[in-house]
């Protein structure tokens, strides 16, 4: 088994610390996947096959505001979106800080930062392809109310 999952956006791979997934990497992974990576890759494949709508993996949530924002993003159901302002109200942080925390998310797709939009724009996305990838992920999920 390779340490990657082929997606409509190319291969993605996972990194972990032995206990938690710490990163999703856009590209081929190196070496043989460990048990946690195999489970994560299997869940990603199931998600892209539409057999899974919510991931069940041990994750590195970060700390402080990053943890609050990541947990708020993970709570957004597949096919739905929230604004940076919505997340700001939940976390008690300014929307700009929420945007920065979203951009620092090391586990995109699994922690769905693509589901967070600006009030009048799509906002950014740090994956290869940028906002185009964000839009493609939202379309894949059937998100209603896309701005384009």
Overview in brief:
The protein is an alpha+beta fold. The protein has helices at residues 35-48, 64-74, 84-91, 95-103, 131-141; strands at 5-7, 10-16, 21-26, 82-83, 116-117.
How is this structure best described in words?
A hairpin with a 4-residue loop joins strand 2 (10-16) and strand 3 (21-26). The relative contact order is 0.15. The protein has helices spanning 35-48, 64-74, 84-91, 95-103, 131-141, and strands spanning 5-7, 10-16, 21-26, 82-83, 116-117. The protein has five helices and five strands. The chain has a three-stranded antiparallel β-sheet with strand order 1-2-3, with helices on one face. Helix 2 (64-74) crosses helix 3, helix 2 crosses helix 4 and helix 3 (84-91) crosses helix 4 (95-103). It folds into two domains: 5-48, no CATH class; 64-141, Orthogonal Bundle (Arc Repressor Mutant, subunit A).
Features:
148 residues; alpha+beta; Arc Repressor Mutant, subunit A; three-stranded antiparallel β-sheet; two-stranded parallel ribbon; 14% strand; globular
- Please, how many domains? 2
CATH superfamily of the largest domain: Winged helix-like DNA-binding domain superfamily/Winged helix DNA-binding domain
Low-confidence stretches: none
CA-atom Rg in angstroms: 15 Å
Largest sheet: 3 strands, antiparallel
* CATH architecture tag of the largest domain: Orthogonal Bundle
Q: How do the helices and strands follow one another from N- to C-terminus?
A: EEEHHEHHEH
């Amino acid at each position: 088994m390779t340490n990657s999952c082929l997606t409509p956006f190319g291969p993605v791979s996972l990194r972990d610390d032995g206990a938690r997934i710490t990163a999703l990497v856009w590209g081929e992974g190196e070496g043989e996947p460990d048990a946690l990576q195999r489970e994560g890759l299997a869940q990603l494949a199931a998600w892209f096959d539409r057999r899974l709508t919510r991931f069940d993996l041990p994750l590195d949530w970060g700390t402080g505001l990053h943890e609050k924002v990541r947990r708020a993003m993970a709570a957004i159901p597949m096919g739905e979106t929230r604004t940076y302002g919505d997340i700001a109200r939940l976390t008690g942080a300014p929307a700009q800080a929420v945007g920065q925390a979203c951009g620092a998310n090391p586990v995109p797709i699994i922690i769905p930062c693509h589901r967070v939009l600006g009030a009048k724009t799509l906002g950014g996305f740090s994956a290869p392809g940028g906002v185009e990838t964000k839009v493609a992920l939202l379309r894949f999920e059937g998100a209603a109310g896309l701005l384009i």
